[in-house]
Amino acid sequence: MIPVNSAADDHAVTSPVDSPDLIATNEESAADKPEEACGVFGVFAPGETVAKLTYFGLYALQHRGQESAGIATFEGKQVYIHKDMGLVSQVFSETSLSELPGDLAVGHTRYSTTGSSRVVNAQPAVVESRLGPLALAHNGNLVNTPALREELHNTNHSFVSTTDSELIALAIAEEVNNDKSWLEGAISALNRCQGAFSLVIGTPEGLMAIRDPNGIRPLVIGTLPRVQPNQPIRYVFASETCGLDIIGAEYLRDVEPGELVWATEEGLASFHWVEAPQPKLCIFEMIYFARPDSVMDGESLYSYRMRIGRRLAQESPAEADLVIAVPDSGIPAAIGFSQTSGIPYAEGLIKNRYVGRTFIQPTQNMRESGIRMKLNPLKDVLAGKRVIIVDDSIVRGTTSRKIVRALRDAGATEVHMRISSPPVTHPCFYGIDTDSQDQLIGATKSVAEIAELIGVDSLNYLSWQGMLEETRNNPEYFCSACFTGDYPVPVPETIKRSKLMLEKVASKAN
Q1: Cα(307)–Cα(298) distance, rounded to whole angstroms?
Q2: Residue 9 has pLDDT above 70, yes or no
Q3: Domains of the chain (ranges plus CATH)?
Q4: Do 182 and 133 meet the contact criterion of CB atoms below 8 Å apart?
Q5: Residue 262: phi, psi to the nearest 5?
């Protein structure tokens, strides 16, 4: 069976040359921020227009991936899929959504980490099995991708994409084809996977939501309100609670590490497929990735980010006239810093929220002051002022250097930078697009050297202990490998070397 509206072949969608909005300049491709891999969304809601619900859920999760988007719906054993390169609002229209019928939907918005930036790698990944099709949306990264790919190749599987997500889908289909049920097949396949995976999987029989044994990437469960008293409960799964809020779904709980949740017409069933899960939620979800209005551990991430700003002010005070933020991610921490230090908070940088990615190369002069395409300083606020600028992280240092130069050009007499996380010293292999270690400024230079390189009067980072203590949770609950190198899931040396090789190839291409 061929999925309806599938964009599985490169020629099935607009080519990159015809879609200038979707191509990043070299300047933008060398991002100075870690990039989240994906957002996933799923809904089981008989009687609802599930494609539209999924569209709005993905719209709320757009910050987790701006490269491609897709939705698959099920009507019995018939699957319909539409996916393409671009933002959610660019990929879907009223017409395309109307061509996605059914009671069950799976959606995905992607930023590539494993697999190149091509439409064949857009998700959901749809594969056939003995029991019918399955559609899989994946947030995370496997660390045993080469081994799993070889296993599947040896059993005569062919591959449409270059993603680890397709491998998970094929592994499930293979297990189902060996006379297993959907649940048995999924659990058998999950035990072949190592790394980070939060999954939403659609089948003709129901909707699955799954987290890896460490729960590295988040996944939550919500319920839609009943329209009629006897109506069955309708379930929603999303990477973050903001994906529930936008469609009026009520947060129920998180999918637990090592749990498979199965939503069908009979209700919600839970299966713990590992004996001893060890939670290791990515701490960067708390610091930066998740939207500030999303809730984790019973509070909004805005509250946590304000607390680490207060802690930063206690640990690293400075004399200044103003506290400003790098918008938008640095704002809550900057407000917290201001509250504790007593130094007034002001907007010193205005963000152009509509700049997007552009195919048009800027002029040389624009490139030299390229940060102003996205951030523009307020000269009358900054002139003659000693400024503390708060940001959530420094990866390469290139953006920070441009920001500092722009603040000085606007008349700031002193620039002190405060970072609401520790130095990033190790790459992530669990679904965040970070540089290889030799490209991470925190791994190759001291704090004093970084301060000199980016041109600030002083630079201080939040302590590792302060970051974890302000979560008000057990520090062992979090993965902080990007700061410590202590990886909760062992990473094969071949994977580490391949990341370094890919980084060098990319740098030469730029």
Answers
A1: 15
A2: no
A3: 35-277 (3.60.20.10), 285-509 (3.40.50.2020)
A4: no
A5: -125, 110
Annotated binding site for Mg(2+): 329, 391-392
DSSP state of 396: S
Neighbour count for residue 210 (Cβ, 10 Å): 26
Annotated binding site for [4Fe-4S] cluster: 282, 428, 479, 482
Per-residue tokens: 300: 């909004």
The SS3 of residue 247 is coil
The number of residues in the chain equals 510
Predicted TM-score of the model (pTM): 0.89
Q: At which residue do the structure tokens 């109307």 appear?
A: 98
- Cα separation, 37 vs 25, in Å, equals 19
Determine which one of 37, 38, 134, 244 is catalytic.
38
Q: Which amino acid is at 253?
A: R
- Is 38 marked active-site? yes
Residue 244 contacts residue 290 (beta carbons within 8 Å): no
Nearest to 441 by CA among 21, 45, 30: 30
Q: Which two tokens stand for residue 465?
A: 């202990």
Q: Can you tell me the distance from the alpha carbon of 415 to that of 411, in angstroms, rounded to the nearest whole number?
A: 10
Write down the pLDDT at residue 437: 87
